[in-house]
């Protein structure tokens, strides 16, 4: 979502991966990734995730799409990412609307390797984002080196920010980092209007979270509430 004054507008969607068990229950990405690691099939799963996400992205039409990827599954970007890039081209998706997002749970020991992957994406016309900045492996100090197009403030610093000065300091720090590196700052995990309003007052313009919509099989075309400009879509 993007916020402009009191208006909210859907500007993009994050495409999420979920598995379906034999009993019809949902399997989280975490459990699928762990199973793939144990079987040395991480690259195959990551590739399947990316290709299916690209297929689903064709339904978005001229809005941004955020697609997660697993850096440690990619050993040579010019080879490993070729089928993904070819499919994007085949489906006529504007590369500039595609944002590849580093999965926060995947710790990359060699940042030079990750930078090489991200440079390959950017050279192909795509954008890239760092997820959950401020927690886990994507700390703010890495942003200077990786130079992402978008940095996402982690949900831990968004939920309840109106009542927590430490979270407010973290949100300000990310804004300053984004301004210094030329990235756009996005707040994820927004679930309460008061948190949304405070973040907007700080200077955030991009948001995503259950306050706007929950994950669903088809992209949201419009918000039920009156408004119009500051949100991200999840499908």
TrEMBL record:
Xref: InterPro entries: Cyclic-di-GMP_PDE-like, EAL_dom, EAL_sf
One Gene Ontology MF term: cyclic-guanylate-specific phosphodiesterase activity
Bilayer-crossing regions: none
Domain EAL intervals: 1-229
Entry-linked Gene3D superfamilies: EAL domain (3.20.20.450)
Name of the featured protein: EAL domain, c-di-GMP-specific phosphodiesterase class I (Or its enzymatically inactive variant)
């Amino acid at each position: 979502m993007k916020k402009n004054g009191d208006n909210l507008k859907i500007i993009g969607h994050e495409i999420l991966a979920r598995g379906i068990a034999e009993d019809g229950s949902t399997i989280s990405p975490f459990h699928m990734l762990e199973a793939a690691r144990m079987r040395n099939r991480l690259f195959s799963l990551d590739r399947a995730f990316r290709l299916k996400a690209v297929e689903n992205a064709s339904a978005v039409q001229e809005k941004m799409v955020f697609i997660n990827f697993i850096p440690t599954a990619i050993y040579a970007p010019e080879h490993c990412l070729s089928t993904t890039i070819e499919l994007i081209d085949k489906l006529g998706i504007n590369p500039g609307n595609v944002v590849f997002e580093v999965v926060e749970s995947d710790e990359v020991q060699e940042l030079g390797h990750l930078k090489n992957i991200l440079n390959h994406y950017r050279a192909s016309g795509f954008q890239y984002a760092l997820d959950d900045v401020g927690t886990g492996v994507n700390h703010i100090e890495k942003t200077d080196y990786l130079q992402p197009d978008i940095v996402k403030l982690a949900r831990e610093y968004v939920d309840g920010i109106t009542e927590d000065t430490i979270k407010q300091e973290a949100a300000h720090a990310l804004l300053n980092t984004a301004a210094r590196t030329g990235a756009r700052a996005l707040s994820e995990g927004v679930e309460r209007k008061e948190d949304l309003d405070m973040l907007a007052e700080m200077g955030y313009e991009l948001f995503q979270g259950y306050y706007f919509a929950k994950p669903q099989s088809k992209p949201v075309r419009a918000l039920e509430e009156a408004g119009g400009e500051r949100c991200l879509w999840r499908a």
